[in-house]
Amino acid sequence: MNFNSLFRKKNISDLQDITQNSQLNKVLSVKDLTFFGIAAIIGAGIFSTIGRASYEGGPAISLLFILVAVACIFTALCYAQFASMIPVSGSAYTYAYVSLGEIFAWTIGWALILEYAVSNIVIAISWSGYFISMLQGFGIHWPDWLSIDYWNAHRAFIESQTHPLTVSANDLKLSQIYQSAPEISGIKIIFNLPAGLITLLVTALAYVGIKESTRISNILVWIKLTVIIGIIFIGVFYIKPENWSPFLPNGLGGVMGGVAAVFFSFIGFDSISTTAEEAKNPQKDLPRAMLYCIIICTVLYAGIALVLTGMVNYKELRVDDPLAYVFGKIGMNFIAGIISVSAVIAMTGAILVYQIGQPRIWMTMSRDGLLWKPFGKIHKKYHTPGFATIIAGFFVGIPAMFLDMQIVVDLTSVGTFFAFILVCSGVLYLDHKKLSKQAKFKLPYINGKILILLFFCIGFTLFLTQTDFHKILKEKPLLSIFWIVWLGLSIASLKYKFSLIPILGILFNLYLMTELEWSNWGMFIIWLFLGLSIYFLYGRKNSKLSRLIQTAKK
Asked: Entry's InterPro entries (predicted)?
């Protein structure tokens, strides 16, 4: 096997020709793209996972939102430079193809498939919970056995049988649902039907056209922004400052324990780049939209976190519907009802964005020969990747009906961090090779020759001054990799004068990766090996770029 073939790269000029000849409709403005990002970011995070993150970190979780936002901004700047150079669908997959090579492109594309699918599974499950709460508010009772996942119910049933005296109230309820559920041939019929139905509905909308999808998405974004700003404004008057003390109840470890949930809240800004071929002026509008949506969403997330932890004690926020919970507790059931309806609307918009983004990544990979040809086919009437959209619907809808949300949340972040690091690395490579001169948006160059090493010395010294740094390294061995990579980048920067911004993007994302559990890494590695197997069995020999290179040699 020729290992050099694994790192073959695309020419940027060839990709720009693809944009001009694209069959997709160019209808998206900078406002549409910004709202597209907001729709993706403001979903299950602000209505669901923010509660569990606040329970772990207390009021200081608002600072974690800002920290993660900084990491996302450094990454978004790198995305923005790529988007201004390569206005092609495919997001980080395409960017890696021109900078790092085919094997890295495949790896990122495979990781993005996981990110988009898993993110939407989580949102669909959260949507189901709020939808059922909304129905109850209207006096409609949805069957319990059609609203939960089978495995969680079965686990609770086993727990109640083996440890009946210590089983939690929630597990006891799940166990009762399991026992009373109908069965066929001895198999209990339990699944989350609303999660599957909303995925089916949104997939149908994404199938019929980007213009129709964008119009509905924009309306949903206006509604959710109005409600969230209203929640912050009303909640301010019910804040009890004593709930903010202590501000850091579980220490820095408690705050960082919410990394997976908080980072999940920001996943989605990169989905803007999947619609590059449908933007009116992608090289100018994509960079602006990415930065706009991150800034807007960071302000809203930090504001909501402070209001939540100010209205009630952080220990009460380990619930799946924290916003509705806190307003219900102060007797404002009407506001709690509005929040439930708004959550359904907000999450519908988020599901729509991911169901639009994922098929376009598959389309681009198929167009390059790395995936089966039907994934790249464009519907003649609707001008959307029809087959890929349908498959994406099944890929999300079926697992959403049967999986537990927490398992899926933990699986989301590793692949996304990995993709973000490779995008930042790609910018470093292009800048070093002086291949980014044609970028219409260029990262401001800040010479990191001395700064990166200086920051390393300060950071590592502060780390060593901690009395329990040995214990920290033992509990988080991946942190050693972080310091080794930082030292390596410091030495490389002395020689190559790397720009500071992409280096900071790599380091922020890598550090946040070290805060994730080993189980997250284990599942991601299994997913990665599965993807590499497909690449070596199918993608490598069917690569369009490989055929072009072989033809040129003849």
From this structure: AA/rel_permease1, CAT_C
Q: How many residues does the chain have?
A: 554
* 350 and 49 Cβ atoms separated by less than 8 Å: no
Q: What is the C-alpha separation between 318 and 325, in angstroms, rounded?
A: 10
Select from 193, 184, 66 the least CA-distant residue to 125: 193
Identify the burial level of 487 via C-beta atoms within 10 angstroms of its C-beta, where 0-12 means exposed, 13-18 middle and 19 or more buried: middle
Q: Would you say 52 and 409 are in contact if contact means Cβ atoms under 8 Å apart? A: no
Q: Using 50, 70 and 90 to split pLDDT, how confident is the model at 202?
A: very high
Angle at 44 between CA 39 and CA 45, to 5 degrees: 90
φ, ψ (nearest 5 deg) of residue 317: -95, 10
Instruction: State pLDDT tens for residues 228-276.
Output: 888 888 888 888 889 888 888 777 766 776 666 666 667 677 778 878 7
Give the CA distances from residue 383 to residues 130, 351, 352, 378, in Å, rounded to whole numbers and listed in that order: 33, 20, 17, 6
Helices (DSSP H) in 312-450: which residue ranges?
322-329, 333-367, 386-402, 405-432
Mean pLDDT along residues 341-356: 83
- Asked if residue 419 and residue 274 are part of one domain, the reply reads yes
- Domain termination site, one of 429, 449, 468: 429
54 and 22 share one domain: yes
- On the question of pLDDT at 547 being above 70, the answer is yes
| Residue 139, phi-psi category: left (phi > 0), alpha (psi -120 to 50), beta (remainder) | left
- Strand, helix or coil at 187? strand
DSSP string, 219-248: HHHHHHHHHHHHHHHHHHTT--GGGGSSSS
Q: Are 87 and 17 in the same domain?
A: yes
Range of the domain at 154: 150-190
Residues 184 and 238 in one domain: no
Same domain, yes or no: 213 and 273: yes
Specify the pTM. Answer: 0.82
Instruction: Name the strand (E) or helix (H) holding 193.
Output: helix 193-208
The span from the CA of 513 to the CA of 523, in Å, is 14
Q: CA–CA distance from 40 to each of 67, 220, 338 (Å)? A: 19, 11, 21
Greatest mean pLDDT among 74-78, 110-114, 202-206 lies in 202-206
- DSSP class of residue 373 equals G
Residue 529 lies in a domain: no
Write out the two tokens for 317.
């926020």
Percentage, residues of the chain above pLDDT 90 = 19
Task: Note whether residue 68 is domain-resident.
Answer: yes
Q: In degrees, to the nearest 5, what angle opens at C-alpha 504 toward C-alphas 38 and 50?
A: 40
Output phi, psi for 28, to 5 deg.
-90, 130
